[in-house]
Every structure is written in structure tokens, then in C-alpha cells.
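Support request from a user on the community tier.

User writes: "When I paste my C-alpha cells into the form, the page sometimes reloads and wipes my input. The last time it worked, I copied everything first. Here is what I submitted, just in case something in the input itself triggers the reload:"
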């Protein structure tokens, strides 16, 4: 665990060092830029907003992390997020319930939307042996066009001049206390549930075993097909939950491009975290800090926020590459230590 933390810390520091070199080459002050980046996202009045913005990153990151660690290559988080957001929006437009019932109902609808969309890929795998790597990617495009049609025609806000739905019922809005949005509490609850399932249950052990060696786990009596279906539905539900919370925490309606790059950034979070549940939470928050702070950074220092997108990609590349190199390096050190011990 200490080695993993070391690789991650060194990777982030190297990425920031490379970013500083680029800024110096462009005539910017890297120290001031980084100061403004973290000041804008971690200041006492901004931290709650940053936490809220990290919610979809963490949830889509957990979706990808659980899938990758368990075997399925579910890359459908963008489409599952959109379908979850759409079902939560429809529920918010047509249901009239008190908040204590409305909010859980819309969250359940969001999870249902994501699970149904990932379930399509799972069924195609089961019936036709189609790779979920391909089907989930293709379903992303279908979800994008389908939701765009939905907010332009059947659910279009007639008073709007661009594609969007009307506001959902206020009873479906996530409660806020000052700058603190309760979507953070939902995300933390989902995180603890996923952590408990993966780390403390028989099902989670079987998932991890299947992810490492599906043939061995099958020979050991694990129902690989059943676990595959459960993991696909669960990871789709997590992405759908992210979409529902994006709508319910604001802007309280489905608008064009509401998914932004949350889902793909979540996949990057899972990759850089090596599908570790706790690291996924940490990196999801860290990427949220970078993305939130980039707005203030650009306003104050004029450094383009696109630099932060590049920085995120560099962090992923360095940490992932460094992970493989460090394992080889420490394995060689251990082998040399054993050889010296035998010689002595």
C-alpha cells in the first residue's frame, strides 16, 4: 500500500512539474497559477461547491472501477449517465410527491435508467456473445441522440429557445444548506455501500476473483455469468445515479450536453486509481478540485483551463506507466535481496 501511495504521489508531482515547464515556456508564472487553482477550489467558501462538482466524477469512477476489477469492460458510463438523468427528469416532471418520497423515487429512477442501458449490453453479450467493450461504446452514441431527441420533442420546454426540458418539481430538488448540496451525502452513501460489497462480501470476492482469472473462478464453482450480469447492472446503476444527481442538484432540468465530460473523466479516475475503491474516491475529488479551480485560474491568471485537461491526462499516463515500472523495479530489488541472503 505504501508503494502504491508513493507511485501516485510521485506521478502527480511529476505531472505538475511538466505543467509548470509548459507554463514557463508560455510566459506564465506556474507558482501563482497553481496557487490560484487551489485557492479557487479549496477556499472555505468554495470547498462545498468543489465537493458537489466531484460527485459525478466519483460515481462514474466507481462504476468503471467495479466493472474493470470484476472483468466486464463497461465503457458505457456516458450513455448510462444520460439515461439515468432522463428518467429522473421524466419522473420529476410527472410525479407529484412530498420531498421525503420524491427524492428517493427520482434517485431510484435514475439508477433504473442506467441499469437498463447497461443491461442492454449484458443481454447482447449473453445472447449473441457480443463484446461489451463495443456495445457499451455504441450505446453511448444511441443514448446521446435519443436524449437529444427527447428534449427537443416530447419533453421540450415550449418557453425555451434551446433544447431543454421544463424544471422538475421542486420536491425533487436535492436539499441545500448554504453552499453544501446534499448530493454529496448520496455519493458518500453509495461509496460506502460499494466498498462494503466489494471488500466485505462473498459476492465482492467472487467479482474480484473473476476479474483476475475468470477460468480459475469458474473451475472453483463461481457463477461467472450471473456475476457478470449483476456487475453490469450495478455499474450501470451507479452511472445512472450520477446523471440523476446532476439534474436534481442543479440545473433541475435536462439540458443539452448535461453529461459534459463527467463520465469519461470518471473512466480516467478509475484507470489512475487502478480500480481501487478508496483511491477512486480520492482521485474523483482531486479531479474535481482541478476542474473547479481551473475556472478561477483562467479568470485571474489568463492561463487557459484546457491546460488542466492536459494535466489530468498527463497524471493518468505517468501514474499508470509508473505503476508498471515500480512493480518491476521493486521485484528486481526483492530478487537481488534474496540472492544476497542465499549467498551469505
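"...and here is what came back when it finally went through:"
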Amino acid at each position: 500500500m505504501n508503494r502504491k501511495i508513493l507511485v501516485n504521489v510521485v506521478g502527480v508531482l511529476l505531472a505538475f512539474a511538466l505543467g509548470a515547464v509548459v507554463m514557463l515556456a508560455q510566459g506564465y508564472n506556474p507558482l501563482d497559477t497553481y496557487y490560484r487553482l487551489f485557492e479557487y477550489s479549496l477556499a472555505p467558501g468554495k470547498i462545498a461547491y468543489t465537493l458537489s462538482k466531484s460527485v459525478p466524477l466519483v460515481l462514474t469512477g466507481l462504476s468503471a472501477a467495479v466493472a474493470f476489477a470484476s472483468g466486464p469492460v463497461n465503457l458505457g458510463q456516458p450513455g448510462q449517465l444520460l439515461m439515468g438523468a432522463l428518467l429522473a427528469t421524466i419522473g420529476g416532471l410527472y410525479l407529484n410527491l412530498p420531498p421525503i418520497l420524491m427524492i428517493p423515487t427520482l434517485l431510484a429512477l435514475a439508477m433504473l435508467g442506467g441499469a437498463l442501458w447497461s443491461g442492454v449490453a449484458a443481454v447482447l453479450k449473453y445472447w449473441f456473445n457480443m463484446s461489451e467493450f463495443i456495445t457499451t461504446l455504441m450505446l453511448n452514441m444511441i443514448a446521446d441522440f435519443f436524449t437529444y431527441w427527447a428534449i427537443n420533442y416530447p419533453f421540450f420546454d415550449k418557453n425555451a429557445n434551446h433544447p431543454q426540458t421544463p424544471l422538475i418539481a421542486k420536491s425533487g430538488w436535492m436539499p441545500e444548506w448554504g453552499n453544501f448540496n446534499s448530493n454529496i451525502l448520496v455519493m458518500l452513501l453509495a461509496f460506502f455501500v460499494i466498498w462494503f460489497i466489494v471488500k466485505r462480501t462473498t459476492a465482492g470476492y467472487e467479482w474480484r476473483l473473476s476479474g483476475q482469472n475468470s477460468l480459475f473462478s469458474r473451475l472453483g464453482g463461481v457463477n461467472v455469468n450471473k456475476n457478470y450480469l449483476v456487475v453490469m447492472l450495478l455499474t450501470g446503476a451507479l452511472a445512472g445515479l450520477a446523471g440523476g444527481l446532476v439534474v436534481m442538484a442543479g440545473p433541475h432540468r435536462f439540458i443539452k450536453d448535461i453529461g459534459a465530460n463527467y463520465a469519461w473523466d470518471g473512466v480516467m479516475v478509475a484507470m489512475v486509481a487502478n480500480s481501487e475503491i478508496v483511491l477512486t474516491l480520492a482521485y474523483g475529488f482531486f479531479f474535481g478540485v482541478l476542474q473547479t479551480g481551473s475556472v478561477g485560474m483562467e479568470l485571474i491568471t489568463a492561463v487557459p483551463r484546457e491546460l488542466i485537461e492536459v494535466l489530468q491526462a498527463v497524471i493518468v499516463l505517468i501514474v499508470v506507466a509508473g505503476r508498471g515500472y515500480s512493480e518491476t523495479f521493486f521485484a528486481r530489488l526483492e530478487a537481488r535481496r534474496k540472492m544476497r541472503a542465499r549467498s551469505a
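Agent notes: The reload is a front-end session timeout and is unrelated to the input. The two ends are 30 Å apart (CA to CA). The CA atoms of residues 197 and 203 lie 7 Å apart. Escalated to web team.
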